[in-house]
Design a protein that fits this description.
179 residues; mainly alpha; Four Helix Bundle (Hemerythrin (Met), subunit A); 9 helices; globular; PaREP1
């Protein structure tokens, strides 16, 4: 796992970019589960969020040409290529997910909502009033982390043929999520 973390990402224009991002998503998902085991729920929420955002980066790369066809202006097409794929800005995750939904990724927007809720939890912690976080307790957030990690694993499994070197970590994560 350490080799994956320390390796630089290929350029977003590279054919290997999506594969590297999918592997990175699995590593972050594994870290989220490790944090949960240690009782670090807010850290786990942050890693689970990052894992999903990384899956989105891979999907955006894989579907870039189809997404650019949906864009209304040349400026939007350029933004997708130069900003969306390499960075996946948090503030643009919902519209990007909605664009992916148009391309047939029906559950991406719902999963993105869950990821953004966990992102809020990471910063605000449990909130009995649910004003700053959608999770009243650590236990609620922990269940949501496991559900989001499971969604990450499901997506990487769907894209398995695009992810070189994912099989072992994918199997390990599938077992951990099933516990």
């Amino acid at each position: 796992m350490e080799q994956v973390i320390e390796r630089p990402l290929p350029k977003p224009t590279s054919a290997d970019y999506a594969s590297a991002r999918l592997l990175e998503a699995l590593v972050k998902a594994k870290l989220a589960l490790d944090f949960l085991e240690r009782g670090l729920t807010r850290n786990a929420a942050g890693k689970a969020f990052q894992a999903w955002r990384t899956v989105l980066a891979a999907l955006l790369k894989l579907e870039l040409e189809r997404l650019k066809a949906l864009a209304k202006t040349e400026e939007e097409r350029r933004w997708l290529e130069e900003r969306a794929v390499p960075r996946v800005p948090t503030t643009k995750m919902i519209p990007l997910s909605q664009m992916l939904r148009v391309l047939g990724y029906r559950d991406v927007a719902f999963i993105t909502d869950r990821a953004l809720n966990l992102h809020d939890y990471q910063y605000h912690g449990p909130d009995p009033d649910m004003a700053l976080s959608k999770y009243r307790t650590r236990e609620e957030a922990a269940r949501a982390v496991v559900e989001l990690v499971s969604a990450v694993v499901d997506y990487v499994e769907r894209l398995r043929d695009k992810c070189a070197g994912c099989e072992e970590l994918l199997g390990d994560l599938r077992e951990e999520v099933a516990r």
